[in-house]
Amino acid sequence: MINFSQVGNDLYTGRRSVDFIGRQKTWYAVSAVLIALALVGLFGKGLNFGIEFSGGSEFRVSSVASSADYEQKAQSAVGSAGIGGNVTATVVGQDTVRVQTEAAEGKTDAAKTALAKAFGVPATAVSASLIGPSWGESVSRQAIQALIVFLVLVTIVMALYFRTWKMAAAGLVALLHDLVITVGVYALFGFEITPSSMIGFLTILGYSLYDTVVVFDKVRENTSEALRSRRLSYAAAANLAVNQTLVRSINTTVVALLPIAAVLVVGFTLLGPGTLLDLALALFIGIAVGAYSSIFIATPLLVDLRRRDPAVKDLDAYVARHPGRGAAPQPQPAAAAADASAADADRGAYVPASPGGSTSVTAGDLAAGLPRPVHKYAQAGPRNQPRRPPKSKR
């Protein structure tokens, strides 16, 4: 059985590592395919805007005994009332059918009567509402304005917080990546875009930004230390940061997606189309894509943007000239450790008492890579003998 706690600890300490930075071309290729499919959906099939954006009439038939053949019944009834164009019918909840048509205007009463007769309900069980396209245009314009303001403010704040525009640029690309793919999924599968969906699109940008900033904060910490100590290259320090935040990103994403998935299941099976389902669908797609971009896109892109920085180039060149400087000490083979222990014993090397009372180093300790203890007054040299105090202090 996999010990996830141990795996997370190993990723954080560097004992295990996933090469996110070295395989950035693979991640870029996956994103390129997803974006291409999204663009095919956007420009090929187009977006399925709800009645709130396109305008039209909506009829709701409640207390329907049976929803069998509801689409055919709705289309026949609306057609008999003289309303043409595209007619869509969906089941909402347990016993309500929602019918959306082009603007009925003076034919509303005739359509209500025809729908009541088709579904076998009284005329009072059919309600009608007329939505003009001007309201949808206002919502679209305000949503686009909010998106532009959001992206500008995000760029400024990230540039000031991380003190480099390249982190802000990488984060902004990750946000646009999430938005394009999420909207493209809506276009490919024909999901209806409603005002609730627009709210969901803006919400997922905030979530994606939050996840990216957490990863970038660790990247900044590790790379600053690498530039100071010169033990790891910039790419290696950034890759370590992604590994250290990997478990946290996965856990946060799973915790966020589980309740949203529950809402989706209830919405599709019981509630039907509505504000809750529209919002949950946008959040589910966007959060999943945002988690992918914060791990696989944002940090590799940041490393690519900073490869030509003088400080980063100097650090990478220095680490390349000293490949073993930042490496962890490797354990000695058991035979070599035993020989080293015997040689130390022959030379009479001083070994202080351990907390358990032992005054010797075992071959197992040396094989495990433990440092060989010496006296605090030991001097450098082949014998490594304790330094004698001056005669005046004897």
CATH class of the largest domain: Mainly Alpha
What do the pLDDT scores average to?
Answer: 76
Oligomer: single chain
**If helices are DSSP runs of H or I spanning 4 or more residues, what is the number of helices?**
14
Largest sheet: 4 strands, antiparallel
Shape: elongated
**Sheet/helix structural class:** alpha+beta
- State the CATH superfamily name of the largest domain: Multidrug efflux transporter AcrB transmembrane domain
Q: How many DSSP E strands? A: 6
Amount of beta strand: 5-15%
Q: Stretches where pLDDT falls below 50 for ≥5 residues? A: 327-371
The percentage helix is 55-70%
Number of domains: 2
The span between the termini is 62 Å
Any key phrases for this structure?
about 400 residues; Multidrug efflux transporter AcrB transmembrane fold; Alpha-Beta Plaits; 2 domains; two-stranded parallel ribbon; 14 helices; 6 strands; about 65% helix; elongated
Topology of this protein?
Elements: H1 4-13, H2 24-45, E1 48-49, H3 51-54, E2 56-61, H4 70-80, E3 88-92, E4 96-101, H5 108-119, E5 126-131, H6 133-162, H7 165-189, E6 192-193, H8 195-229, H9 234-271, H10 275-296, H11 298-306, H12 310-321, H13 334-347, H14 363-367
Parallel strand pairs: 1-6
Antiparallel strand pairs: 2-4, 2-5, 3-4
